[in-house]
Give the backbone structure.
Amino acid sequence: MTATSSLHDWGDLRSSGARTLDVDVLVIGSGAGGASTAATAIELGHSVLMLEEGPYVPAAKAPALMADSFAKIWRHGGLTATYGTPPLAYAEGCCVGGSTEVNSAIFQRAPEALLAEWQKNYRLRNFSAEELAPYYDWAAQVVNASLTPPPLGMPSDLLMRAGQAMGWQVKQLERGQRDCVGTNLCALPCPTGGKQSMSSTLIPALLQRGTAIIAEAKVTRLIRQGSWIKGAKVCTRDADGQTHNLTVKARRIFLCAGAIQTPALLQQAGFRGPIGQKLRLHPTIKCLTHFNEIIDAQDYRLPLVAVTQFMPELRLGGSVFTPGTFGVALAEDWQRRSGSIGKMRQSAIYYAMVRGRGHGRVISMPGGAAPIVTYRLDPQDWRLLGEGVSRLAQAMLTIGATKVYPSIAGHEGWNDPQQAAKAFGEKLPKNRSQLMTIHLFGSCPMGDSPGICGADSFGRVFGAENLFVADASLIPEAPGVNPQATVMALARRNALHNLGEQS
Amino acid sequence: MQAIAESFGAELASINEAAQHQSSEKAATAAERLLDLAPWHLRLLVMTVEILASLWCVIYRLGHAGRRNPAEEIATFEKFPLISAPLLKLYRSLVALSWFELPEVSSSLGLHETREQRQQRFRLERSALL
């Protein structure tokens, strides 16, 4: 097996064709949950094998173009969407480091009131904000959660001014960053290593301690014998591109493959009930915004401030802006927006994100084929999205934006704040709204209520003795904040419980 | 895909013909590569819609003979009711993601640095900090 531990040259982390491996702890997935679980297991003295379906892409080899990045490190080239009206585009990282390589590394704790609500509704043990605080602190330390030193750049300044002009609370958000130089390429992934993703933090530490990590290793199914999971069948690809079948036997298995792949693997292994039945997410709608002056949003960090006035139900923030994302925004309604092609340097993209109350399903397919995902928005989601775009547009037009196009096909765009204000309270057109999300959760909710939860209060899958979930699937409902901090904190907490002395 | 990229170029007055042709080819290739990576159910859906829409185009052309430019070709496709609009939107998004970042296009948009040059500049900037 090729899995070197040199910090400076990891090799390619691909399998060289071993047929069977026998390990103590198997971690499936290398994102926020997987890396946190593996790091904790190593600390506790266990031997760990980590499998990652995607490739290893070091910062020095990060693609420069969005399309290349999508092809290389985003699951299915970024072409993933839920079925429903409307379809909702979602994104998942599929590389060493998982979605931490494609997100903006914003670090937010779940709101205390929501934690208390979940504790009660899902009968979660040891789940108060106070009890979770040490695990959040650990996660904050790992990623160096901190405020990015100013200047933050024009897109941030504009959102700050817009929010303040409306009298709203606007805050800078903490991020996992160290000497971020503002490439605005967080999603490609970060080419400098300034973003403190898993491949810049826990994974190098794991390799240094001798943890075996195999990239381009797709788990096709779990090997189950009653309540005991014996291991996993894996399809690997070696450095020459040859595929090999590998069987990994393990005493304890942690599923950390994300809110779509984890329930799909569980369903294939015969775990049903609530698993995959209540997928939650943050429905988000974007607004392409034009100004008279040059913004050069492509040259600055994505907006690191957000309108927090309406959180956790609604957040107004800013998106990564590159020539490619600008092009995609025009392509949403080329007929009406093609005339803006020359306005790239005067444009920025902002969003309204709601704490979704709707839910969807993950339906697994045989042989590890891509699952089908559905999602249906709740009427309250529609109402909040409508209010969100209206508020965002009003704020931007108040500070001098010349046009705001919400992501609604056939929309002529708003030219002045009064026009946008009139839309407040109007329902968004279901068939024409173009929604997306990068936050998915709740497909295997944790808690001591087997009827509504797929795993117990510490992530052990109901009906299995040695199978645990440690990713965003466990978060019972949409938290209204970026989930990475919560995923890391829960993975840490659950690994300590399940692998430590208490286990 | 290439016709879509060419229709982008037609809107950007500052791009020359050679650059437009070159960028269209590259963007179409990149978009097709992304489409190949789509999950099986999406590809199946796209394939079905493509077959239906192609049949529509053939039938439509029988009644409207004559050579067409890319914009007219797309317009014909767009006339296919209900189904062609989402498919075109998907294709346009894929092509746009690539096309707008190509060096020959970004310079026409007023950027003087390619994406690769920019990335390298930041790498040097951060390594100087460490």
Residues 2-129 of chain B form one domain. Chain B touches chain A through 48 residues (CB under 8 Å). The helical segments of chain B are 2-11, 17-37, 40-63, 70-78, 84-99, 103-108, 115-129. DSSP finds seven helices and no strands in chain B.
